[in-house]
Amino acid sequence: MNPLKKLAGQTAFYGVSTILGRLLNYALVPLHTSVFEDTAQYGAITELYAYVGFLNILYTYGMETAFFRFVSRKEIAPQDQQKVYSSAVTAVLSTSFIFSAIIIGASGGIASLIGYPESSHIIIWLGLIMFTDAVMAIPYAKLRQENRPLKFAVTKISSIVLTVLLNLFFLILLPKIHTYSSLLDAIYYPDMGVGYVFMANLIGNAIIPILLWRSLAQVRLSIDWQVFKKMLAYGYPILIMGLGGMVNENIDKLLLNDLLPADFYADMSPNEALGAYGACFKISVLMTLAVQAFRYAGEPFFFSQADNKEAPELFAKVMHYFTILSIIILLGVSVNLELIGSMFLRSKGYLDALYVVPFLLLAKLLFGVYNNLTIWFKLTDKTKFGTYFSILGAMITLFGNILLIPYIGLLGCAVASIACYFVMCIICYYYGQKYYPIPYNFTSSILYLVAALVMVYVSFQIKIEHELLKHLLNICSVLVFIGVVYLIERRKLLYQRIS
Fold this sequence. Notes:
Layout lengths: L2 H24 L1 H8 L3 H22 L2 H9 L6 H28 L1 H7 L6 H26 L3 H32 L14 H12 L1 H4 L1 H5 L7 H35 L10 H35 L6 H25 L1 H8 L3 H4 L5 H17 L1 H5 L4 H25 L1 H26 L7 H19 L5 H32 L1
């Protein structure tokens, strides 16, 4: 089977499951923004999950990618593959237990330290959530390595469905039942508020080990230290890369509340601005869906093609089509932002931050490009370069936020992200061409991107009072863009076949 078609098929499968899962998760955005009308409450959810993002990286410390790298090597016999799997799971299980035990034991102090002294119970739940996430990371990686996207999708979506249903139960149904009966006093506490969001997440996570019990049953609780030392040496730069990625993804949410002047926005306090930004950030994550779906299918694909003589040309084509898809997402979301915003953000206060979404989408597009470019140092075992690039990117993001937030507010977060990923793309491409040359051709992609950005700018400048007509014209403009790109790319393919 054509490897590009195989990758496209698996990306589509992972994409459908990822998009469906995210859409179910997105159902929580209108729910939360309607229940928590005070944007400051949503700010608490945003901030706490930002901390979780950092800690999740520490919990797995690069073992997912290390597992892929070592299990895909041709010299690895089937029995040694089992050693790689068991060693990775056992190590992550052991360290995760220690990390979560520390968090649970110090929950009161941690809650006070981060500004939520009455929420030590939430810290305990987050410790358990992160434990489950980390322990199941390698079994999920094994499903991807074995090309079992259906099992992967079913377990992911089942957990998300349960989480969404529990959110509806705790935040909508339970309060209504409680007004008519006190039978549920044991599980309903009116002052719990956002705590129910984390409780639902914890219960939703708890079913994953049950659904993946066969994968867990294959684990032998032992570590082959000869194998594991090599995995750790390979994985620790991935850990640094992951932490750098989390800085780029989440540091703005941790700094915004402190760096934004109290009077910057006339109608929003810094904490309320954080809540509005966090909700709008969720919309920009539509771009991340493409990146994540591609990563799920792409990592095992790239490693499996490493010994193919035509791999560089193949990887260049993959980058080209991935970039086109990302540009279409950027255009489609940006020109239809008002429509999408009205669907997801139910309270007016959240809509005030919508203007940052196109900038965030561009940042995430560049992140997707960078994610593709990193394949050279993963295949050549030069993951130390990923560490250097991640540290550089994290510094740009950190100082960018510190310098820009006090002067341009929420937009400073997005501009810092764009600068970070742009520099990381340039430097990763430069070194990649030295150590593992791949014949990328970015000319047409850049032209498509410029055209899409111009269309986004024009759509914001043209004011059409008739809502239906405006939305129809925006949708048609996206379809025209897709049609033109399709015709150009089809003509290129025909020309290549003739020549």
